[in-house]
UniProtKB/TrEMBL annotation:
Keyword rRNA-binding: yes
Ribonucleoprotein keyword on record: yes
Alphabetized InterPro entries for the sequence: Ribosomal_bL20 (IPR005813), RIBOSOMAL_L20_CS (IPR049946), Ribosomal_protein_bL20_C (IPR035566)
Organism of origin: Flavobacterium cyanobacteriorum
Alphabetic keyword roster: Ribonucleoprotein, Ribosomal protein, RNA-binding, rRNA-binding
Protein's name according to its UniProt entry: Large ribosomal subunit protein bL20
Functional note: Binds directly to 23S ribosomal RNA and is necessary for the in vitro assembly process of the 50S ribosomal subunit. It is not involved in the protein synthesizing functions of that subunit.
Gene expressing this chain: rplT
SUPFAM superfamilies registered for this protein in UniProt: Ribosomal protein L20
GO molecular function, one term: rRNA binding
Pfam families: Ribosomal_L20 (PF00453)
Length: 114
């Protein structure tokens, strides 16, 4: 009995991976074995970094809120504790935007919680 290899599916799979590797440098874009490894690694990084992006943005927002709060003589933790106690339901993303782009509005919030 002849060997069955389904070259249609194999070629489609290779084409899909090589299409994903478009734009890579050197043999990573056109040599099947190298491209396959590069694409797998890229997918792993993409999955991991979708999670890390959330962490990085939260850290950035905290830094911006801290800088804004310290201009008014408070630390970040004191400020956030008083914001929660005052019942102000603004998240860190909004507070960071106010601290950066609308300092007068941020100052009003600080004065309200002091």
């Amino acid at each position: 009995m002849p060997r069955s290899v389904n070259s249609v599916a194999s070629r489609a799979r290779r084409k899909r991976v090589l299409k994903q590797a478009k734009g890579y440098f050197g043999r990573r874009k056109n040599v099947w074995t190298v491209a396959k490894n590069a694409v797998e690694k890229a997918m792993a990084y993409a999955y991991r970094d979708r999670k890390q992006k959330k962490r990085n943005f939260r850290a950035l927002w905290i830094m911006r809120i801290n800088a804004g709060a310290r201009l008014h003589g408070m630390s970040y933790s004191q400020f956030m504790g008083k914001v929660k106690a005052a019942g102000i339901e603004l998240n860190r993303k909004v507070l960071a935007d106010l601290a950066m782009n609308h300092p007068e509005a941020f100052a009003a919030i600080v004065n309200k919680v002091k």
